[in-house]
Design a protein that fits this description.
The protein contains three helices and twelve strands, in the order E-E-E-H-H-E-E-E-E-H-E-E-E-E-E. It has 175 residues and is mainly beta. 7% of the residues lie in helices and 42% in strands.
Length: 175
């Protein structure tokens, strides 16, 4: 029997993030991965899009997101929300290595990224294989986040479902 796998990411609002005791805000993000086993998964890639209502989650899930969020010259589309890692480095997408043991534990695995406050955001997660280069195994989108700002933000859930066949497109957005 295949168990449901859970990743927990903490997406912080740039204007409110800081040390844990400074009253900073976070947008907790849970990614439920369906149809895969932990030993298949190498990374989870997370992207946040603005103007979410102009995107269709089924369309985004149909193939690698890379081809949808990067222009032909390799620059990001305007709707891509920049994320910052725990070192303060800005990224167009966050690529998190997955620990299979942590992934199958009751707590899951936790990561953190920061983003600017805004409205009408959509979080898109892609589950990538351990292969080199990685292939897209599963994908999912959040509901539209009407507003992300200071203070306490509601938790966001993403249901990532395995693709019928692994995608053959180039999956990693940021090298």
């Amino acid at each position: 029997m295949m168990r449901r796998l859970l990743l927990t990411l903490a997406l912080c609002v740039l204007a409110a993030c800081g040390a844990a005791d400074d009253g900073s805000s976070q947008v907790p993000l849970g990614i439920d991965i369906h149809g895969l086993t932990a030993d298949q998964i190498g990374h989870v890639q997370v992207v946040v899009l603005s103007r979410a209502k102009s995107f269709s989650c089924p369309d985004l899930r149909s193939t690698c997101l890379r081809g949808r969020v990067l222009k032909q010259d390799g620059s990001p589309i305007d709707d891509l929300v920049k994320l910052k890692d725990d070192q303060g480095v800005e990224h167009t997408a966050m690529l998190f290595a997955v620990d299979a043991a942590a992934l199958t534990s009751a707590k899951g695995q936790t990561f953190e990224a920061r983003m600017a406050p805004g409205s009408e955001y959509m979080v898109v997660s892609e589950v990538l294989s351990k292969d080199e280069p990685p292939t897209l195994l599963a994908s999912g989108c959040s509901a539209i986040l009407e507003k992300v700002g200071g203070g306490q933000n509601a938790a966001v859930g993403v249901q990532a479902f395995a693709l019928a066949e692994p995608a053959t497109c180039e999956a990693v957005i940021e090298k």
